[in-house]
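Supplementary material to the annual report.
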Amino acid sequence: MATGVATGPLFGLFYGARDKQGLKKTIGSSLIIGIISTAVWAVVCIAALPLLLMMYMRNAADIENAELLVRQGIYLLLAFTPVRICAGTLGHFYEATERFKHSLMISILPDSLIYPVMLAVLLPHLGYTGLWIAQGGNALVFFILAYLLHVISKKTPKITADDILKFNDKVETAVPMFDISISYDNIGTTGISEKIHSFMLKEYGTKRTAYLTALCLEELMADFVAHSQITEEKIKRDGAFTDVKLFSDPDAFRIVIRNAARQYNPLDFEYDDEDFSKIGIKMAQKFAERIDYCYVYRMNIVTIYVAKADSQ
Amino acid sequence: MNITKNTEGKTLNIALEGRLDTTTAPQLEAEFNQSIADNTELILDFANLEYLSSAGLRVLLAVQKTMNKQGKMIIRNVNEVISEVFEVTGFSDILTIE
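Predicted assembly:
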């Protein structure tokens, strides 16, 4: 569950870049880490079980009985854990990708509705076993019901990862204004800046907004080129690349630059008034509404927001 | 970027057209290195300069330092946005802009 929470910012980040591959990779990593950590904790709990029971139970006969029940509970919960981890991860995925109805359903229904019903049905017949099954299996029942609803509504038993992980309709049908991958050199950097400048002059903002968007992009990318130490050889070996996406948000134009290279934060510098060494970044920071940086999955990601109000 | 130049006595007039960015800045730098040695006045006309990035600013700073030793440098016809770039970076205090 904790990994699901921890991956929330990553989901938000990749969703911001409309990067489905990144999102899928994050979900995969989250599930693997969740399952491994659960298995490790289960082993620890089972190993510590006799000691824990001795601390809380005084009667030896009670201990034997309780140990059996608790062991049964741990095994049953463990068996259902992958499904519960899926539910937790998907809940955070839906929350981060603005599918709030799905997020609410997956967060509330299994525990608040399905669990009490299962408890009421199973407890009288199976005793404690029923309790463990209801506790661990409510997410599985939720998924089964959701799948049945899908089959009924879509009239097909087939369901793909893309069906589960798709964005909401408004975003799914939208495309970035500008989406391009470029080679890693200065020609590419200024070429893309020039293209964005022309594109924005023609399609959207005023001269000033077009200029500032192109300028901020060029300054950040030129800085990456200067510091990431990417060579042709490294590009061939590691598949290094830089790509740029431009989005039109309600209040700002948002540029996302992703650069698969060694970690380098262009915003972490000391400005020297004498030699103007970081004048480009400093200028971009002054003109942009905001510039964010993060490094995930061996990618430097810079997001630049240029306010639309600047165009007035 | 197009660079047009003409010399009147010891005054060198250079008009820039297009973009002065990471790619074109070395071209302007080479032009300065080649042309300004014998001049005491350098006048840059930015009337048709559409875009200026930090790479261009660095070239302007270098040539300003050179001209400080041998005469003066004046920049004319700066458009509104480039003027804002000079303001934000503090270059408006270093350069002579008319």
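The two ends of chain B are 22 Å apart (CA to CA).
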